[in-house]
Amino acid sequence: MRFPIFKTKIEGVTQKLNLTDPKERKIYFGLKTGTEIKKLRDYLKKSSFIAYLLGKKNSGKGTYSKMFAEVVDPERIDHFSIGDMVRETDLDFKIPEKKKELINFLEKQYRGLLSLKEVIFALERRNTKTLLPTELILALIKREIAKRKKKALFIDGFPRDLDQINFSLFFRDLIGYRDDPDIFILIDVPEKVIDERIKWRRICPLCQTSRNLKLLPTSKIGYNSNKKEFYLICDNPNCRETRMVTKEGDARGIEPIRERLERDEKLMERAFSLYGIPKVLLRNSVPLKETEKSVDDYEVTPEYSYEFDEKTKRVKIIEKPWQVLDDEGIPSYSLLPPPVVVSLIKQVAGVLNL
Ligand SMILES: [Zn+2]
Q: Is residue 129 scored above 70 in pLDDT?
């Protein structure tokens, strides 16, 4: 499965922008896709849409959809993940009033092979490993959609396996509940990119902010001269220069989630082959050879390395474009989130015929 390269380079536009700076990012989106942003804002005043995000774990689903909302209209666009939804449902079950409201809702909306009683039992007694019946997930999604009134929605985590994709027949029914267009958003990210995102991930033990020593450093870098190791220092002023740490197991990269990634891949292939539902294809990487004609230099993810200067006792930061092999072994660059979101905005506007 190879997605087409989306050209974000515009002839004659040569302004170099720093995409980590929110102000410059705003200028960037205006330059690259201002027309579509305006059309989408007008559209969202009266209508909405529901987009199902499909991509491998750690492919950036949350990042892209949240940035889309931030750029287009945070008031009229929302994002929710099935994982969070199930955790919230678990909490609701502990509060009698909320539990009652939930059961009332399910009595009206739930349809499935198990009785509602059995389903509620499954919900209360399950451990974290057991999956909830798809029919229940569908009913819960309806509830989330209802809570969010007329907002456009990005849903992360449904469908989650091949069995659930057969429920795509129900998608019209789900949407019928709101009468809005539905879209599949498929995200193609090389596994090597996911691997490095996990391997170099660093977390602040106080505020839980997640960054990356190689790909997304903080503004201050520390050096441990005994271990000859560089580390990130949390930017959050409340954390008072706390040293960010690795999470257990992260050093193994994608190894522990290999099966999950394979399942996600099969799911995307199946979704890709479905007829009758519009698809948006997002691509994270661009082969080196294609880069010059399709993207601007500053749209490519840099990698950072560090040197310690014994004399000045300072850490020197070295930045260069990050080269990574895609799943076919082709040397590529990985795009920063904003150019992927430009492609998302343009394609969503296209699918909605704006
Ligand atoms: Zn922190």
A: no
Distance 38 CA to ligand 1 centre (A): 36
Provide the token pair at 325. Answer: 């092999």
Cα 197 to middle of ligand 1, angstroms: 19
Span from the CA of 251 to the centroid of ligand 1 (angstroms): 21
In angstroms, what is the span from residue 237 Cα to ligand 1's centroid? 8
Which residues have CB under 8 Å from 39's CB, separation 6+?
349, 354
Ligand 1 centroid to 209 CA: how many Å?
6
- d(CA 260, CA 246) in angstroms, rounded, equals 22
**Residue 32 is which amino acid?**
K
Q: Tell me: the pLDDT tens digits for 232-257?
A: 999 999 999 999 999 999 999 999 99
Chain segment 302-320, per-residue pLDDT in tens: 999 999 999 999 999 999 9
Residue 209 DSSP code: -
User: For residue 168, what are the contacts with CB-CB under 8 A and spacing of at least 6?
Assistant: 159, 271, 274, 277
| Structure tokens that stand for 223 in this block | 């050096």
Alpha-carbon gap, residue 245 to 203, rounded angstroms:
5
Q: What is the pLDDT of residues 139-156, one digit of tens each?
A: 888 888 888 888 999 999
- Give the CA angle between residues 273, 277, 278 to the nearest 5°: 95
Ligand 1 geometric centre to CA of 206 (Å): 5
CA gap 71, 28 in Å, rounded:
11
Query: What integer pLDDT is reported at residue 113 of this predicted model?
Result: 81
Cα-to-centroid distance, 129 and ligand 1 (Å): 30
Kind and range of the H or E element at 192? helix 191-199
